[in-house]
Amino acid sequence: MPDSPDKPETEARASKSADKVLKRSSNPKPRKKKRTPRPAGPTPQWYKYLMFGLMIVGLLWIIAFYITQGLFPVPAIGNWNILIGFGIAIIGFLMTLRWRG
């Protein structure tokens, strides 16, 4: 279609779209560098021992508080022993989120 009557219209559209492209490229957005993911290996052995150890220590803390009727592990803080035991155990449970077997 070399002799098409719509040729001036298409040229006008093409120049408008070229202007849009130039406007976009003149104000580039800063691009974030993509981080290359490291190959995820297994978690170190000590991590697993610490994780399960914290869960068990927290459970034993609470059991000791109930069995001794508040005389052990720390009698001065009373019922706060339950919160301490749960806190220790929860730290162990939160560590499971980063554990890779």
From TrEMBL:
The keyword Phosphoprotein does not apply. Its main location: membrane. The chain crosses the membrane at residues 46-68, 80-99. Keywords: Cell cycle, Cell division, Cell membrane, Membrane, Transmembrane, Transmembrane helix. Residues 1-22 have a biased composition (Basic and acidic residues). Coiled coil: none annotated. It is a multi-pass membrane protein. Residues 1-43 are annotated as: Disordered. Belongs to the CrgA family. HAMAP family: CrgA. This is Cell division protein CrgA.
